[in-house]
Design a protein that fits this description.
The protein has 10 helices and 13 strands. By secondary structure, the protein is of the alpha/beta class. It comes from Nibea albiflora (Yellow drum).
């Protein structure tokens, strides 16, 4: 694996993780050690465990277990991955580089239960602070014997598990300039694919009165991202879809990103399209409505929607409570067009980054979290 690891980024980010953990706010205050275990699962596109790996190392490391203790860090991985991780583990002369706990690398045994390795990791957890609770990501469940035997070991030890998904999300959500740059690039590519491919294709279909299914159109968008001419100079191997494109028309609309484009033919009225490109692991998202000969009322409502968006953007400032931003928008709609209040969605978006949708940072009426710069 002659792959380079950005050491500076690793140290900056691991420092941030540790300093937030030391502050001990919310769930961070309840955990004696943090355990991040990643198995192999082709089905899982987004998970906190893989996101934190990407954030720290720039790569997803399958079948790798990371244990963060107050004075040491242990990684258990295959020989190849251990060689890759040596770039941050071996710090000449100064074991505790940059004020971050030193790293111990353990090589995974292929043929046995890894008992000796597991014992070392449990011993480290036991020696960290009170040694009783471990922070985990409760939603992440990877299949396979290796992950099962590790999880069984934690359970057998009687360690209490605390879900730290939200506090780790808050830690990773504030982006460095380089990360913002990757997201801007992802957004720019999405915009190119949308305007140069999708919009042009829809206009062709409408002009020629073609019969095209939503699902077929969505597939053609996925194919388009393999072509350099739509990628604004990006290498196609660094570009993927955040989710399968969602194209809807003809009066049936669901505003969730888990919806699949159906097999109905595109109706030449209001056509909605949602797509997002992930560039070097960072996500973007774009949703557009194309209206063919819309009546005046539809145009007025659309223009009002844009005013609502502007109102929201004014609210999104450092230190503002998310729920306050949402409620200000709600009041604005009540004042300007009360009949449309029932049409306002329950959330107005969410934070994104390495994961497409950050569940603990959703713009809704309940979220008490304060917005932060970046």
């Amino acid at each position: 694996m002659a792959v380079n690891l950005d050491k500076e980024a690793y140290y900056r980010r691991i420092k941030r993780l540790y300093s937030n953990w030391k502050k001990g706010e919310d769930e961070f205050g309840k955990v004696d050690a943090i355990v991040v275990s990643v198995g192999v699962d082709e089905e899982i596109v987004y998970a906190k465990s893989t996101a934190i790996q990407t954030w720290l190392f720039g790569y997803e490391l399958t079948d790798t277990i990371m244990v963060f203790c107050d004075t040491k860090i242990i990684f258990l991985a295959s020989k190849k991955k251990v060689d890759f991780l040596k770039q941050v583990a071996v710090t000449k002369g100064n074991e505790n580089a940059n004020g971050v706990p030193p790293i111990t690398l353990l090589t995974r045994e292929k043929n046995e239960s890894n008992k000796a390795n597991f014992d070392k990791m449990i011993e480290a957890i036991r020696g960290s602070k009170e040694g009783k609770t471990v922070g985990i990501f409760s939603k992440d469940k990877f299949p396979g014997e290796y992950m099962k035997s590790w999880n069984d070991t934690i359970t057998a030890e009687g360690l209490e598990k605390v879900d730290i998904s939200a506090v780790v999300a808050y830690t990773m959500a504030v982006k460095e300039d380089g990360e913002l740059g990757l997201m801007k690039k992802a957004a720019a590519i999405t915009s190119e694919v949308y305007s140069k491919f999708f919009k042009e294709r829809v206009m062709e279909i409408v002009d020629a009165d073609e019969k095209v299914r939503h699902s077929k159109l969505a597939e053609s968008v996925e194919k388009a991202i393999e072509e350099k001419k739509y990628l604004g100079g990006a290498d196609p191997s660094t570009v993927e879809m955040c989710y399968p494109p969602i194209i809807q028309s003809g009066g049936n609309y669901s505003l969730k990103f888990s919806v699949v484009s159906d097999k109905n033919h595109m109706h030449f009225g209001a056509i909605t399209c949602a797509m997002g490109i992930r560039y070097k692991s960072y996500c973007s998202n774009l949703v557009r409505t194309l209206m063919v000969d819309p009546p005046q009322e539809m145009q007025d409502n659309y223009n009002f929607l844009l005013l609502v968006e502007e109102e929201l953007l004014k609210q999104l400032k450092h230190g503002v409570k998310i729920s306050d931003a949402y409620n200000t928008v709600l009041e604005y709609v009540k004042k300007e067009k009360a009949d449309l209040v029932s049409k306002l969605t329950k959330n107005l978006g969410f934070a994104m980054g390495i994961e497409f949708r950050e569940g603990s940072l959703v713009l809704n009426a309940k979220n008490q979290y304060k917005l932060k710069k970046g």
